[in-house]
């Protein structure tokens, strides 16, 4: 159970850090607060993981091998939009201009290592609470069919597969997807799925 009565996120927190000790520390903090956690040691691994399962929040080290944390952040924003909470952490890039650069590429918060455990948890909780609520108007604005399409999108089905599952034409499915994106205020199917999970729009779908 999460502390302070906070419900446990249904999607995992993603920790991206190539330092095993730092990753273990962050994971332990998040797990103690009731969050499910997945870990990636590289930017490439992180991007592979989010393509399989949309994260609830990302704690991202800046200095990663091959693909930097900055590059990962930019790609996460492209995939999921502004609704995904991203917290940068770094023990090497701690100057003010590093923080500015991190925020400029899309991070919501930037912590210098070593950080106080409560500082990380408070930041994560605040960002999750801010991103989680989906307005009742947006949620109720989806028709039953649009919710069905969204649920199948969340399962990873392509539009043609959704059409087969629901016995609809591909053109009709494309129209439904367009309506879903418009009503949720997003620009891609990946963003729609992320919003759906944070807003509990696809819970209970089998």
CATH topology of the largest domain: Rossmann fold
Count of DSSP-assigned helices: 10
Question: What is the beta-strand fraction?
Answer: 5-15%
Strand order of the largest sheet: 2-1-3-4-5
Shape: elongated
Q: Detail the poorly predicted runs.
A: 1-9, 134-138
Mean of all residue-level pLDDT scores: 83
Task: Please describe what this structure looks like.
- By secondary structure, this protein is of the alpha/beta class.
- The protein has two domains: 3-131, Response regulator (Rossmann fold, 3-Layer(aba) Sandwich); 136-198, Orthogonal Bundle (Arc Repressor Mutant, subunit A), CATH 1.10.10.
- It contains ten helices and five strands.
- It has helices at residues 20-32, 43-52, 69-80, 96-104, 117-131, 136-140, 144-154, 159-166, 170-184, 189-198, and strands at 13-16, 37-40, 57-61, 86-90, 109-112.
- It has a five-stranded parallel sheet, sandwiched between helices.
- Helix 2 runs parallel beside helix 3 (69-80) and helix 7 (144-154) crosses helix 9 (170-184).
- The longest helix is centred in the middle third of the chain and has 15 residues, at 117-131.
- 33% of the residues are buried.
- Mean pLDDT is 83; it is low at 1-9 and 134-138.
